[in-house]
């Protein structure tokens, strides 16, 4: 149902039906339905004259793109909680409202972080490969032994929505102590007896270091050779935030040399990670293709919320989830 | 045979942690099967001959054949496991052979591995790792539903066997805000279930309602092949099966069919029939079947603790003292 006065929007990927239906009922929607994402030059052409943009986190929303869209663009709605791909300052300058999807992907992403931590520390990748390669027959009692959570110190770098939920999920595994950095969380200190610490203390005392911080100029590349040196030799490092917080070359060296024990990454630089990346050759590194929020329920909810943000913004209403910057 | 040696003789079927074995060596004459591969049946029978004690693990079947081969001087067997389906306990009792095992010390590690398998299957970790390796990642966002998995939050968990390990699994999953925890077994266990709000149901009810079916029961004659074609038919088409009990509880052919046809969603197995699972097993061809090589109790601290406990049991048995953790 669209009319000449219905706002013109571009939806840059195939999205779940429910969200699509919402958008097409209220807007003149240009829907990208191909398997491959739109190439940049085509993207810039398509968006000329649009009022609203529904995008994903792999779309770079910068001045060039905003220029290409033109002065009618007043809403950008991203189907993600991270918005480091959106130049929010540039959008604010142009009075473009930006919507995102916090909160609803917290559970899925926290669960994936726990799944990744367990898969890494309990060496599931090596176990699966051993079965496939016929190495089971050489069983020894200490073969494929991992590091358990029982009695461990868990350090969460950035105890936001996702970090806190991760800590809550890990609590019944017998974690002895939670350390965290970032902003003070009296609720976490109360519920989990979490201890606010500086990074050096967190690195040196944690058996598990979990990166749950946003990617900002301050956090970019923070997990570097220096940080890995400070960590325990048996430390398990897990990153489900953004690849940019890790210096990947330093991580490779740290893993290969035994400076730290193992790493589990759901995010990398670049994404996709090239198949010849040296990280993929390491037994003690697990890499997943950025599936933090990838559950049926959550992806549908994210798409619907992003659609609601888009529609509200186009009406000039406050979005359900708007970035105030 | 050295006439001077009065130390009791112990056969250790695999290279268990050296700290534990060195303690054994202080009191006993110890023979360890080292080597690249696990001992063959014949090597086990030969190694057991004339021994006063055996330090074994679940792949070593303790039956009439082995007890006869060992000889009547055999006093104590220590098994590196809490599972006992590989041991003819009645026969050991009959012959006055003490058996020690490793309950409790491995509960935490095993429950943790059980949860690791639940989450790995829920989030399709095996497919994900493969996608990265094969370079099919694309931009990861070609399709907003790529590799989408299941959430633990809001799901119904079904635990078959709420023993020590089953309960520990339930407690861990409860923190994910599951919708319900169901369990089944011979009898309700209110002392374990009530604090976590777990609900006792029949096996069929558990199969019909659960999003995750976790097999944590001990294996015995009554539950051999419990998970057969009819069981899989009763499960939800999106349900995930995780087995950390014993391979024998699952009919593997029926499981293969159920996974292949979409009768159930996925399976994570740490135990199989046989072990090791042959590389030709059709289960290994399925993207929705994840198999790990019986590593659920495998953390460094747990394996060391298990070893110490078995050494304690063996030394006690040899010295005529009560075992620390006796089966009989």
Automatic annotation (TrEMBL), chain A:
<dbReference type="GO" id="GO:0030267">
    <property type="term" value="F:glyoxylate reductase (NADPH) activity"/>
</dbReference>
<dbReference type="GO" id="GO:0051287">
    <property type="term" value="F:NAD binding"/>
</dbReference>
<dbReference type="InterPro" id="IPR029753">
    <property type="entry name" value="D-isomer_DH_CS"/>
</dbReference>
<dbReference type="InterPro" id="IPR036291">
    <property type="entry name" value="NAD(P)-bd_dom_sf"/>
</dbReference>
<comment type="similarity">
    <text>Belongs to the D-isomer specific 2-hydroxyacid dehydrogenase family.</text>
</comment>
<dbReference type="Pfam" id="PF00389">
    <property type="entry name" value="2-Hacid_dh"/>
</dbReference>
<dbReference type="InterPro" id="IPR006140">
    <property type="entry name" value="D-isomer_DH_NAD-bd"/>
</dbReference>
<protein>
    <recommendedName>
        <fullName>Glyoxylate reductase/hydroxypyruvate reductase</fullName>
    </recommendedName>
</protein>
<dbReference type="GO" id="GO:0005829">
    <property type="term" value="C:cytosol"/>
</dbReference>
<dbReference type="InterPro" id="IPR006139">
    <property type="entry name" value="D-isomer_2_OHA_DH_cat_dom"/>
</dbReference>
<dbReference type="Pfam" id="PF02826">
    <property type="entry name" value="2-Hacid_dh_C"/>
</dbReference>
<keyword id="KW-0560">Oxidoreductase</keyword>
<dbReference type="InterPro" id="IPR050223">
    <property type="entry name" value="D-isomer_2-hydroxyacid_DH"/>
</dbReference>
<dbReference type="GO" id="GO:0008465">
    <property type="term" value="F:hydroxypyruvate reductase (NADH) activity"/>
</dbReference>
<feature type="domain" description="D-isomer specific 2-hydroxyacid dehydrogenase catalytic">
    <location>
        <begin position="9"/>
        <end position="323"/>
    </location>
</feature>
<feature type="domain" description="D-isomer specific 2-hydroxyacid dehydrogenase NAD-binding">
    <location>
        <begin position="114"/>
        <end position="292"/>
    </location>
</feature>
From TrEMBL, chain B:
<dbReference type="InterPro" id="IPR036291">
    <property type="entry name" value="NAD(P)-bd_dom_sf"/>
</dbReference>
<dbReference type="GO" id="GO:0030267">
    <property type="term" value="F:glyoxylate reductase (NADPH) activity"/>
</dbReference>
<keyword id="KW-0560">Oxidoreductase</keyword>
<protein>
    <recommendedName>
        <fullName>Glyoxylate reductase/hydroxypyruvate reductase</fullName>
    </recommendedName>
</protein>
<comment type="similarity">
    <text>Belongs to the D-isomer specific 2-hydroxyacid dehydrogenase family.</text>
</comment>
<dbReference type="InterPro" id="IPR050223">
    <property type="entry name" value="D-isomer_2-hydroxyacid_DH"/>
</dbReference>
<dbReference type="InterPro" id="IPR029753">
    <property type="entry name" value="D-isomer_DH_CS"/>
</dbReference>
<dbReference type="Pfam" id="PF00389">
    <property type="entry name" value="2-Hacid_dh"/>
</dbReference>
<dbReference type="InterPro" id="IPR006140">
    <property type="entry name" value="D-isomer_DH_NAD-bd"/>
</dbReference>
<feature type="domain" description="D-isomer specific 2-hydroxyacid dehydrogenase NAD-binding">
    <location>
        <begin position="115"/>
        <end position="296"/>
    </location>
</feature>
<dbReference type="GO" id="GO:0051287">
    <property type="term" value="F:NAD binding"/>
</dbReference>
<feature type="domain" description="D-isomer specific 2-hydroxyacid dehydrogenase catalytic">
    <location>
        <begin position="10"/>
        <end position="327"/>
    </location>
</feature>
<dbReference type="GO" id="GO:0008465">
    <property type="term" value="F:hydroxypyruvate reductase (NADH) activity"/>
</dbReference>
<dbReference type="InterPro" id="IPR006139">
    <property type="entry name" value="D-isomer_2_OHA_DH_cat_dom"/>
</dbReference>
<dbReference type="Pfam" id="PF02826">
    <property type="entry name" value="2-Hacid_dh_C"/>
</dbReference>
<dbReference type="GO" id="GO:0005829">
    <property type="term" value="C:cytosol"/>
</dbReference>
């Amino acid at each position: 149902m669209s009319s000449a006065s219905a706002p013109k929007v571009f939806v840059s990927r195939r999205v779940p039906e429910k969200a699509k239906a919402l958008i097409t009922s209220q807007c003149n929607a240009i829907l990208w339905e191909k398997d491959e994402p739109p190439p940049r030059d085509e993207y810039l052409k398509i968006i000329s004259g649009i009022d609203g943009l529904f995008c994903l986190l792999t779309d770079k929303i910068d001045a060039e793109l905003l220029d290409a869209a033109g002065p009618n663009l007043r809403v950008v709605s991203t189907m993600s909680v991270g918005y480091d791909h959106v130049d929010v300052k540039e959008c604010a300058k142009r009075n473009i409202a930006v919507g995102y999807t916090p909160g609803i992907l917290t559970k899925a992403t926290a669960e994936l972080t726990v799944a990744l931590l367990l898969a890494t520390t309990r060496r599931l990748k090596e176990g699966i490969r051993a079965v496939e390669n016929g190495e089971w027959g050489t069983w020894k009692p200490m073969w494929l032994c991992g590091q358990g959570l029982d009695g461990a110190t868990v350090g969460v770098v950035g105890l936001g929505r996702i970090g806190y939920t991760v800590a809550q999920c890990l609590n019944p595994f017998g974690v002895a102590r939670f350390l965290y950095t970032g902003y003070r969380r009296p609720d976490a200190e109360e519920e989990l007896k979490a201890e606010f610490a500086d990074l050096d203390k967190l690195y040196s005392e944690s058996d598990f270091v979990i990166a749950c911080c946003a990617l900002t100029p301050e956090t970019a590349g923070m997990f570097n050779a220096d940080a890995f040196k400070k960590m325990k030799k048996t430390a398990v490092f897990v990153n489900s935030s953004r690849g940019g917080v890790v210096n990947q070359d330093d991580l490779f060296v740290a893993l290969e040399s035994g400076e730290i024990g193992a790493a589990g990454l759901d995010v990398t630089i670049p994404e996709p990670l090239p198949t010849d990346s040296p990280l993929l050759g390491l037994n003690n590194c697990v890499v997943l293709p950025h599936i933090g929020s990838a559950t049926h329920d959550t992806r549908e909810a994210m798409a619907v919320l992003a659609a609601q943000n888009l529609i509200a913004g186009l009406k000039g209403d406050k979005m359900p989830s708007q970035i105030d910057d | 045979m050295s006439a001077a040696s009065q130390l009791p003789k112990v056969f250790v079927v695999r290279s268990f942690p050296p700290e534990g074995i060195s303690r054994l060596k202080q009191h006993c004459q110890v023979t360890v099967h080292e080597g690249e591969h696990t001992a063959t049946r014949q090597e086990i029978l030969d190694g057991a001959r004339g021994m006063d004690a055996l330090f074994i693990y679940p792949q070593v079947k303790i039956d009439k054949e082995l007890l006869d081969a060992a000889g009547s001087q055999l006093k104590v067997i220590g098994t590196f496991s809490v599972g006992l389906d590989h041991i003819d306990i009645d026969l050991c009792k009959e012959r006055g052979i003490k058996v020690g095992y490793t309950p409790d010390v491995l509960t935490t590690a095993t429950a943790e591995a059980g949860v690791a398998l639940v989450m790995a299957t829920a989030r399709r970790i095996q497919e994900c790792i493969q996608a990265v390796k094969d370079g099919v990642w694309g931009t990861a966002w070609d399709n907003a539903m790529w590799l989408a998995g299941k959430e633990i939050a809001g799901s119904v968990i079904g635990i078959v066997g709420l023993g020590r390990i089953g309960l520990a699994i339930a407690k861990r999953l409860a923190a994910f805000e599951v919708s319900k925890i169901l369990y089944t077994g011979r009898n309700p266990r209110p002392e374990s279930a009530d604090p976590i709000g777990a609900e006792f149901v029949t096996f069929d009810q558990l199969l019909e309602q659960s999003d995750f079916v976790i097999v944590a029961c001990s294996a015995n004659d009554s539950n051999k092949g419990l998970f057969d074609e009819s069981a899989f038919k009763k499960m939800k088409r999106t349900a995930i099966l995780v087995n950390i009990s014993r391979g024998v509880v699952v009919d593997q052919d029926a499981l293969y069919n159920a996974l292949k046809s979409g009768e159930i969603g996925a399976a994570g197995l740490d135990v199989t029939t046989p072990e090791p699972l042959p590389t030709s097993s059709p289960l290994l061809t399925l993207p929705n079947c994840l198999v790990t090589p019986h590593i659920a109790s495998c953390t460094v601290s747990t394996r060391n603790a298990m070893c110490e406990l078995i050494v304690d049991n063996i030394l006690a048995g040899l010295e005529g003292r009560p075992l620390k953790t006796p089966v009989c």
